[in-house]
Amino acid sequence: xxxxxxxxxxxxxxxxxxxxxxxxxxxxxxxxxxxxxxxxxxxxxxxxxxxxxxxxxxxxxxxxxxxxxxxxxxxxxxxxxxxxxxxxxxxxxxxxxxxxxxxxxxxxxxxxxxxxxxxxxxxxxxxxxxxxxxxxxxxxxxxxxxxxxxxxxxxxxxxxxxxxxxxxxxxxxxxxxxxxxxxxxxxxxxxxxxxxxxxxxxxxxxxxxxxxxxxxxxxxxxxxxxxxxxxxxxxxxxxxxxxxxxxxxxxxxxxxxxxxxxxxxxxxxxxxxxxxxxxxxxxxxxxxxxxxxxxxxxxxxxxxxxxxxxxxxxxxxxxxxxxxxxxxxxxxxxxxxxxxxxxxxxxxxxxxxxxxxxxxxxxxxxxxxxxxxxxxxxxxxxxxxxxxxxxxxxxxxxxxxxxxxxxxxxxxxxxxxxxxxxxxxxxxxxxxxxxxxxxxx
Length: 441
Hints:
CATH architecture of the largest domain: 3-Layer(aba) Sandwich
Number of helices: 17
Low-confidence stretches: 249-256
Oligomer: single chain
Strand content: 15-25%
Shape: globular
Number of domains: 2
Strand order of the largest sheet: 3-2-1-4-5-6
CATH class of the largest domain: Alpha Beta
Largest sheet: 6 strands, parallel
Helix content: 40-55%
CATH superfamily of the largest domain: Glycerate kinase, MOFRL-like N-terminal domain
Mean pLDDT: 92
Order of helices and strands: HHEHEEHEHHHHEHHHEHEHEHEEHHHEE
Distance between the termini: 7 Å
Radius of gyration: 23 Å
């Protein structure tokens, strides 16, 4: 597919390397507790390499660690002392529910002399499923699937998830009392809100069950069991607040948790975009980082990036070719009808390709940093001048309407397949306009 495709792949590889979870964790590990244990609990697509880094670090100090982490199927890695479980993502399954119970059991057993290390990365909301009492797994699965199809952004989804959980929204940290808690976070959330990554197992965000109900209303989500649980939780919260006002001196469990708990950001999308930009600059491109916070419908974001690329090609703005336009964040796909195969990055790429003329000197990559785009086995997709010339635009528009971008890129051999990267810092997109030698192939 030509040298520009090689540049795109190198830029994506650099972005993933900059989010290496093991290196990120090692830089933030504290001295071991003088008398207690190091207890590791973790959830997310980067949980296994994060736990491996903890094991290596403390083994080197002669300190034993123990605990349990959960990651997505296919993302596990061999660990010596920490159990590594696997579960489903993005819709939770029975393995995720069992993992949630194991995490809670590990922190419940922690004592005042222990250090609890909570390793948090994207995907943790689904992977560590611990429903509220009276809410079963089927109800959690139903509301998660409905939210995914509704077009709700990840922040809205996490508001609902955390108020249906006994882990999220700071509840895991509260359960760890009286141990000290340090949470290390690889962020897959736009804006790096630590209360939002994996729905904030160590960070409360001030939202309540009423906010979760409002999300269900706003996106027209029909989930009777989840709604009933949230309404019950809202009543219970109101009763607790009335009791707290009657006894203003009473301490709260979350307040106690906040005093014992520190949460640190260790890897983010911005650092990955900067690493990709460095590779692109070395390849001879002017680089423009458009934003690390691109959200909204994937196909529309793709069309917007195409418009910026055309402005650069035709008018030299925001920079003259050869220029590399770089962006991050996380788009959404509102599924209408049954839907086909694909994901937000391949849908972005198809939206971009359809907004470009066949003769545009443009190449692009859109990929999820975790190596998995939606439900497929691909990380995302590539757009090249050869694809723009070969694209059957009538068939491609039909595929886009059916959310079947995968079939288009598979048929033209332009899928990006990396396998699981075992990290997750949102999406990485690069759009090349022109080339240093002006020989786009």
